[in-house]
Amino acid sequence: MQEHDLRPSEGATKKRKRVGRGTGSGKGKTSTRGTKGQNSRTGGGVRPSFEGGQLPLTKRMPKLRGFNNRFKVDYVPVNLDELDRRFEAQSEVSPESLSEAGLLGNSKHPVVVLARGEITKPLAVKVQRISASARQKIEAAGGSVELLPFVVDKRMPRS
What we know:
Blueprint: H1 57-60, E1 76-79, H2 80-86, E2 92-93, H3 95-100, E3 111-114, E4 124-127, E5 129-130, H4 132-140, E6 144-147
Parallel strand pairs: 1-3, 2-4, 3-5, 4-6
């Protein structure tokens, strides 16, 4: 096969409609635009969002309301009952181990431990934030709590 043998497949191309080439062509005089009216004029027609005079959808929708804080930190919540179920006694609970256990979607998000449920095993918990009652329950079970520093990466999408 040579380059000059290449052809588009049958029906893939259409001939351009040539309008305004005399009455004998069948597409002369008004050039398929009809007679008079907004759409027959040069530059005529309506914008894509025009709805015939009805109040357009873009104006009917409520505006974006409120305030979005650019510096808000979204924590991933983890509860004590989940920690008690997934971790053995004396094990270390960190964002990495929580991610491996399937409790976090992304280990880059800061973690907050909340006090739902009871904990029966001593665990070494290392997270960015913990509620006061969760800290009491972990320490009462013989565990320890260490708070990790965190840097929020603003390029990371919010969940």
